[in-house]
Amino acid sequence: MQDFLNALVAELKLITQRGKVADYIPQLASVDPAQFGIAVCTPSGDSFTAGDATTLFSIQSISKVFTLTMALGKIGDGLWQHVGREPSGNPFNSIVQLEHEMGKPRNPFINAGAIAVVDAIMMGHEPKECLGEILSFVRYLAKDDSICFDRVVAASEMQHRDRNASLAHFMKAFGRLRHDVDKVLGTYFHQCAIAMNCLQLAQSGLFLASDGIDKTMGQRIVSAQRARRINSLMMMCGHYDGSGEFAFRVGLPGKSGVGGGILAIAPGKASIAVWSPGLDQQGNSLIGTLALERLAQFTGWSVFGQK
Ligand SMILES: NC(=O)CC[C@H](N)C(=O)O
Question: Which amino acids does the record list as binding substrate (predicted)?
Answer without folding.
Answer: 61, 111, 157, 164, 188, 240, 258
